[in-house]
Amino acid sequence: MSNIAILLPGIGSQYLKMGKSMYDNYASAKRIFDIADECLGYHLRERIMYGDSKEFNDKTFVPAAILTTSIAFFTVFQDVFNIKEAYYAGHDIGELSALVCSGAIDFSDALNFLVEHSQITLSQNDASNKEEISFRLQELISKLTLKRHVENVITTVDGIIYTDSEDIVRLMLQPYTQTRWKDTIRYMTNQGIYRYIEIGPSNMLRPQVLDVEPAARVLTVDYEGDPYYSTELFKKRKLFNKTYLLSRMLGVAVSVPNNNFDDRDYLQNVVTPYNQLKDIYDKYSSTNEQPSDSDMADASRYFMQIMHGKKTEANEINLRLSDLQEETLIEEVDMFIDLNKTTLLAKGTPVSGMS
């Protein structure tokens, strides 16, 4: 199991055409939207992708749209990367998405539940029927079928991991405004989780995580206004891909400004290690094999030699390494960061942007 947590967004993440690139490019995502259409009895996908933006104020439509889009993203993510996450957590209705992603609840059951739950809670404006509404909600929750015991979902009602299935009843009876999102992030941080992947529409959760834990690495799989960001991320298999990391190291090595104007030293400490780094990348670029530990150790040494050969400031090196770690979520990059941190501290240099 990896030390990664999956975060699922809630109300506020929705936007017109969300999930379209997933639907257009991945059969598994298309299947999720098709299941939603069948469950709901209307074309949810059509309304999400081609409807009127005013519909995104509809309080029964929006929760179903967010849930469906989030599960479509997660399904493709699992197909591509097949990662076993340590924890799942969702912001407001995203908690239901988290339960689906963990395997505790079936998607179609969650979708039907969410629609009926939204309809019941919308009728709470009439103060005289509170008891009836509470009874209807408890009756609805009791029908929610669990596929298996909940083991690794953090409940934002308490900010801790579910202790048993009874927590679901408590959660669903709580208004979404009474969640403890920051405590949820703190709980996972205390468990050693520093790598997070926000899966679903938009990128609303990243700043909230960094506000609690600035050292966290948070990758978002979707950006409003950039419909092909997620497609490129999945098709190029950028995450957990050491070969892709090697290609990015080469890119950084070229793009970092040079401050070394000694031709002989530049040849020895920039050109030569760059060619050695490129040889390692070329060895794996046309295969499905991941670089060996020894090759990655050599690559890191060549990369650091290039950075120092170009006389790059230590803090600049650290920022570049942090970007590489956040782009790929590969833990080995932490080794480079620690290496550079040692250099910084030895020089007595103030440290910035450091995890």
UniProtKB/TrEMBL annotation:
Top enzyme class: transferase
GO biological-process terms attached to the record: fatty acid biosynthetic process
Keywords per UniProt: Acyltransferase, Transferase
Catalysed conversion reaction: holo-[ACP] + malonyl-CoA = malonyl-[ACP] + CoA
SMART domains from the UniProt entry: PKS_AT
Transmembrane intervals: none
EC numbers: 2.3.1.39
Domain Malonyl-CoA:ACP transacylase (MAT): 7-237
Claim: Acyltransferase is one of the keywords in the record: yes
Molecular function terms from GO: [acyl-carrier-protein] S-malonyltransferase activity
PANTHER family (alphabetical): MALONYL-COA-ACYL CARRIER PROTEIN TRANSACYLASE, MITOCHONDRIAL
Name under which the protein is recorded: [acyl-carrier-protein] S-malonyltransferase
